[in-house]
């Protein structure tokens, strides 16, 4: 976390372009600009009713490979109060925009390979019958459990009068002999003010977006549905500082006894701009 904070501060002088949607779990059709890099961190924390508080942090490196293809690397770190802090593994993600122009509904195809372990508590999605019991295991013991998985998502996103509506269907398969698991995430958001001001303004309302996320598991191939699945609903918001970082906050409230009572989320992201330009500036110093 210190490394990420220092890196973000070192890049503060470079112009950036921010994205407005404040989602932590749901994806919209936003794609990274070609050749542009975004560095970020998403942290989730919660507490079992009779357990210790945990946190899971995902450090993100997102790169715009082309105008229709964005790649991302996640590095996960997990810790639990009165236990240890461990490396949770890595994820390689690719998103593809099959349509060149904006439409009423904009689809994105998502693929991901995960090489994580049982200690991971980043809660980047909820699938199958994932519940609070999965987050109760001791980190030192569960880190020995390897989980290599593939994940597919169908992302649908629509924009109407500054509102964004995003719907995700999730399909996940452990590469061992386990069934496909399913999940979903829904997001809606809107800037607090649609019209921008001509002058640079840090605290203007158009730099703040607010909305809500609903997400949860949908069972597996042997039983699709919401029975014995965890479900969460809660507000999300972000603040994009012009030519600076983007800060995000969110809370997921558990909707049934299978869920955690609450998951709190904090995010920070910074886009230093074109990688070629950044390397040139660093070499010129």
Could you describe the 3D structure shown?
This protein has 285 residues and is mainly β. It has a single domain (2-284), classed as Beta Barrel (Porin), CATH 2.40.160. The protein has 3 helices and 13 strands; from the N terminus they run αβββββαββββββββα. The chain has helices at 2-10, 139-142, 275-284, and strands at 36-47, 53-66, 69-80, 85-96, 106-117, 146-160, 163-174, 181-191, 208-220, 223-224, 231-240, 246-254, 262-274. A 12-stranded antiparallel beta barrel has the order 1-2-3-4-5-6-7-8-9-11-12-13. The protein is globular, with a radius of gyration of 19 Å. It starts with a helix and ends with a helix.
Name its key features.
285 residues; mainly beta; Porin; 8% helix; 52% strand; disordered N terminus
Nearest-integer average pLDDT: 88
The strands making up the biggest β-sheet line up spatially as 1-2-3-4-5-6-7-8-9-11-12-13
User: Could you give the count of β-strands?
Assistant: 13
Class derived from helix and strand content:
mainly beta
Shape: globular
Query: How large is the count of helical segments?
Result: 3
Order of helices and strands: HEEEEEHEEEEEEEEH
The CATH architecture name reads Beta Barrel
The biggest sheet amounts to: 12 strands, antiparallel, barrel
Give the uncertain stretches in residue-range form.
1-19
C-alpha Rg, in Å? 19 Å
CATH class annotation = Mainly Beta
In terms of DSSP E residues, the strand content is over 45%
Return the CATH topology: Porin
Task: Name the CATH superfamily assignment.
Answer: monomeric porin ompg
- In total, how many domains does the architecture comprise? 1
């Amino acid at each position: 976390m210190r490394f990420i904070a220092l890196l973000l501060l070192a890049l503060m002088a470079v112009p950036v372009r921010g994205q407005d949607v404040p989602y932590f779990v749901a994806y919209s059709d936003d794609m990274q600009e070609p050749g542009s890099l975004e560095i970020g961190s998403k942290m989730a924390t919660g507490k079992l009713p009779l357990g210790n508080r945990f946190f899971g942090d995902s450090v993100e490196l997102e790169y715009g490979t082309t105008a229709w293809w964005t790649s991302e690397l996640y590095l996960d770190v997990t810790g639990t109060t009165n236990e240890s802090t461990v490396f949770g593994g890595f994820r390689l993600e690719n998103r593809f925009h099959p349509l060149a122009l904006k439409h009423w509904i904009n689809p994105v195809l998502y693929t991901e390979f995960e090489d994580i372990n049982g200690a991971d508590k980043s809660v980047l999605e909820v699938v199958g019958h994932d519940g609070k019991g999965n987050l109760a295991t001791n980190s030192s013991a569960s880190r020995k459990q390897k989980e290599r998985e593939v994940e597919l998502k169908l992302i649908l996103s629509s924009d109407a009068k500054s509102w964004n509506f995003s719907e995700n269907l999730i399909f996940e398969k452990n590469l061992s002999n386990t069934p496909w698991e399913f999940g979903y995430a829904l997001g809606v958001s809107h800037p607090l003010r649609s019209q921008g001001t001509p002058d640079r303004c840090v605290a203007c309302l158009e730099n703040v977006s607010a909305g809500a996320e609903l997400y949860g598991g949908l069972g597996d191939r042997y039983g699709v549905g919401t029975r014995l699945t965890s479900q969460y609903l809660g507000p999300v918001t972000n603040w994009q500082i012009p030519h600076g970082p983007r800060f995000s906050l969110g809370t997921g409230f558990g909707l049934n006894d299978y869920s955690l009572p609450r998951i709190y989320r904090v995010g920070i992201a910074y886009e230093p701009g074109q990688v070629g330009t950044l390397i040139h500036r660093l070499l010129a110093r």
